[in-house]
């Protein structure tokens, strides 16, 4: 199989915009689509790419289509379509490839893969880890589920967006690992916030305590990369929304229930984050959860 050169990219959000920008910069023939036409227009004015008027136009012009959408529901709507609009799969031909790089639900991905296979379309899941800064400089970790043969044919495309590419197993396994990773990441964030609040009440400066954690066994990705930058600074601007984080925790917990593996501790973390989102409202950054925990403790970590 040859590496596809004509690439479609659907979903130009916080992550999709810089990821697609790297593909355009690497010289692939890129066709982009987003339901938000302003963002699509901004993308083509800043990059060498064609704006598609519809999903059908993307399907007609591309050998490989990447989706970078909020969740499985949006991915399914874009691929299968609905009464209003045909989805990508209607006009994708046999031998074309669909790669879902969103953080989707693994069981829904498997189901979609079966429907696409019946039309001769290859599907892979390739969710990413690293956030907006790594999407911008092409250093994402990419977790690929599917077949090794299709991965090898798409590898040059992935290498433009990421510097660590993992094959996790059959279709859906990338999405499973991604949701489980995000559960673990959220647990690290929540635990760090709670312990910093206890330390603060005791009289320890949170910045000093966080520095100590980072030289000690309690350190994690949140203490190293999020607490000082987004919580103590009060910027709450990581670029990863609380809505999407709760969606990922729901995915991880659905998986644990479906597979009958107890995950009591993780479920408690999911409940806390869902309650924080319910109380704080939609459209916030995931690091805003700190403000909800501060409210419970009646104490603040930053000024
Ligand atoms: P986002 O909400 O910023 O972007 C989603 C984009 O998809 C928007 O531009 C929206 O207009 C578009 N869209 C929605 N439905 C559509 C449809 N049917 N057709 C075409 N366009 C549509 O989200 P994001 O932060 O870029 O995240 C995208 C995915 O990547 C999510 O699954 C998220 O969980 C995952 N992710 C995000 C981060 C991060 O740091 N933001 C990191 C890793 C993974």
Structure characterization notes:
The protein is 55% helix and 13% strand. With 303 residues, the chain is α/β, with parallel strands linked by helices. It has a 6-stranded parallel β-sheet, with helices on both faces. Strand 2 (29-33), helix 2 and strand 3 (50-51) form a beta-alpha-beta unit. The termini are far apart. Bound molecules: nicotinamide-adenine-dinucleotide (NAD). The site of nicotinamide-adenine-dinucleotide (NAD) has 28 residues, from helix 4, helix 7 and helix 13.
Key features?
single chain; alpha/beta; 6-stranded parallel β-sheet; 3-stranded mixed β-sheet; 9 strands; elongated
Question: Secondary-structure blueprint of this entry?
Answer:
Layout: E1 6-10, H1 16-25, E2 29-33, H2 37-46, E3 50-51, H3 55-61, E4 64-67, H4 72-80, H5 88-91, E5 97-100, H6 106-117, E6 122-125, E7 128-129, H7 131-137, E8 140-145, H8 148-161, E9 162-169, H9 173-202, H10 206-214, H11 221-225, H12 227-232, H13 242-258, H14 264-280, H15 289-297
Parallel strand pairs: 1-2, 1-4, 2-3, 4-5, 5-6, 8-9
Antiparallel strand pairs: 7-8
Helix pairs in contact: 1-7, 9-13, 9-14, 9-15, 13-14
Bound molecules: nicotinamide-adenine-dinucleotide (NAD).
